[in-house]
Amino acid sequence: VQLQESGGGSVQSGGSLRLSCAASRSTVTYGMAWFRQAPGKEREEVATIAFTDSTTYADSVKGRFTISRDNTKTTVYLQMNNLKPEDTAMYYCAARPLWPIGAPYNYWGQGTQVTVSS
Questions:
Q1: Rounded to an integer, what distance in angstroms lies between the CA atom of residue 111 and that of residue 21?
Q2: How confident is the model at residue 40, as a pLDDT?
Q3: How far from the centroid of its chain's Cα atoms is residue 100's Cα?
């Protein structure tokens, strides 16, 4: 599956952005996730959505970010509200197959930059 992110940009602290991840085919047989990586920092898993549409979030974004998938299952979104300067990073969409269980995220998009100014 090929992934393409969009929706990044520059906003002020407290602002909102919605990232989109367009997949080349249905993601119903994949676990999907958003990761981010800031300069000099390790890549961080931000949010995940399973084939059941159950979701998980990093503690740093709980209550501010929402991951979702459209009805066609070809687009995954990350709604980001109340953005903070520490959210500044390159954001990546990733997919992993459902089998084998525990398979790594081995499909990645090119990334979209999010910059939050104070």
A1: 9
A2: 94
A3: 22
Query: Is residue 87 within 8 Å of residue 116, measured between CB atoms?
Result: yes
* Residue ranges of the chain whose pLDDT lies below 50: none
CA 35, CA 93: separation in Å to the nearest integer?
Answer: 6
Contact 91, 6 (CB under 8 A): no
Helices and strands in the chain, H and E counts: 0, 11
Write the CA distances from 95 to 27, 89, 105, 108, integer angstroms: 8, 19, 5, 7
Q: How far, in Å, CA of 115 to CA of 11, rounded? A: 6
Q: Per residue, what are the HEC states of 6-44?
A: ECCEEEECCCCEEEEEEECCCCCCEEEEEEEECCCCCCE
Please check whether residue 54 is in contact with residue 69, taking contact to mean a CB–CB distance below 8 angstroms: no
Q: Which pLDDT belongs to residue 7?
A: 98
